[in-house]
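Tokens as discussed.
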């Protein structure tokens, strides 16, 4: 029969003895008590608290070799108290990684202890497949780039809700995180709009369809007047500054919006979305590609890819994608205008006439006829 922890000998006297002279029995006591804890037939509250008290006092003061031996035994054991794991995780990088990788469950206490030394635990976390949703949310809330990347690369966990939004938002300016998120099979294309510029051709089409389906449910805002003529005029003169200023004004964006992309090579994709959003025809867009920038115009493949992108993205989706990539919603109308609302709409606010205003007659009154008396 396996021994019970309650049957273990009392080592308190040995601990006191170890404090006298050069005799150090603390490593021996910790290892023996650890073995007794692991082989105990039952782990009730009393026995767990007793071991937690003893181990919690010895782990911080024993040598590294003993702490490492104990960590390898206690980390994968389901009944090991979380405070003991936290104390082990604070002992150093090697012991911390053992705890993070092998513990059946991790509490916020253990994670906090592992991070207390300022070291990176992202690699260890990435190997785990059983992270709870609350723990994932807590790790994402720390806003540490290495942890974000490790979670994005961990296909064994499920990213949900606000966690996806936070990671996607940070990935706008972090190419490696963007690629890790785009590679995940569990994320819906509609959630990846902000990462459109990083996506490959097939995924761009899927994102465009998803964004376009949502955009089609609401009316499209009016197109800027004479956008094609104005922009092709600037492009034909190769007036890049004037072209960008006019385009930004039509979209209601800052003039430097094209320079906000993390990768300068993707600015022409952003420009293509912008041309689609202001309603240019394909011929006008091709003219811009062939005249605005000489380097782009000389590359047949580059122009072909831009034209293909222009064709595959509906205007309504282009507006939403542009706003998602820039993290700036495009205004429905410029110059302080408001969106049109039909007077007969169910929720329309109808104007009320002042109480002092007399209602106009529906039709003019007919002239009365003078009644003649019988004497006349």
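Sequence:
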């Amino acid at each position: 029969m396996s021994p019970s922890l309650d049957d273990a000998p009392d080592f308190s006297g040995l601990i006191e003895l170890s404090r006298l002279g050069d005799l150090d029995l603390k490593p021996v006591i910790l290892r023996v008590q650890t073995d007794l804890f692991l082989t105990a037939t039952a782990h009730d509250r009393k026995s767990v608290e007793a071991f937690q008290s003893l181990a919690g006092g010895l782990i911080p003061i024993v040598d590294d070799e003993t702490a490492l031996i104990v960590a390898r035994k206690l980390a994968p054991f389901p009944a090991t108290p979380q405070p003991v794991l936290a104390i082990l995780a604070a002992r150093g990088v090697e012991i911390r990684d053992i705890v993070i990788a092998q513990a059946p469950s991790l509490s916020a206490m253990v994670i906090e202890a592992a991070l207390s030394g300022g070291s990176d635990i992202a690699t260890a976390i990435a190997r785990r497949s059983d992270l709870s949703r609350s723990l994932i949310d807590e790790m994402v809330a720390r806003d540490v780039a290495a942890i974000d990347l490790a979670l994005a690369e961990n296909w064994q966990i499920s990213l949900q809700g606000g966690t996806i939004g936070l990671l996607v938002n940070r990935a706008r300016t972090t190419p490696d995180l963007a690629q890790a998120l785009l590679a995940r099979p569990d994320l819906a294309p509609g959630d990846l709009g902000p990462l459109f510029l990083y996506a490959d051709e097939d995924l761009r089409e899927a994102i465009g369809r998803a964004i376009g389906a949502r955009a089609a449910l609401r009316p499209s805002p009016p197109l800027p007047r004479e956008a094609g003529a104005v922009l092709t005029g600037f492009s034909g003169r190769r007036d890049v500054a004037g072209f960008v200023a006019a385009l930004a004004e039509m979209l209601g964006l800052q003039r430097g919006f094209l320079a906000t992309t993390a990768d300068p090579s993707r600015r022409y994709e952003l420009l293509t979305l912008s041309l689609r959003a202001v309603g240019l025809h394909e011929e006008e867009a091709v003219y811009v590609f062939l005249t605005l920038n000489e380097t782009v115009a000389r590359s047949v493949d580059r122009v072909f890819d831009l034209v293909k992108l222009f064709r595959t993205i509906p205007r309504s989706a282009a507006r939403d994608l542009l706003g998602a990539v820039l993290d700036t919603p495009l205004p429905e109308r410029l110059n302080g205008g408001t969106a049109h609302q039909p007077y007969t709409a169910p929720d329309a606010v109808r104007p009320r006439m002042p109480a002092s205003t007399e209602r106009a007659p529906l039709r003019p009154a007919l002239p009365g006829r003078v009644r003649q008396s019988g004497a006349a």
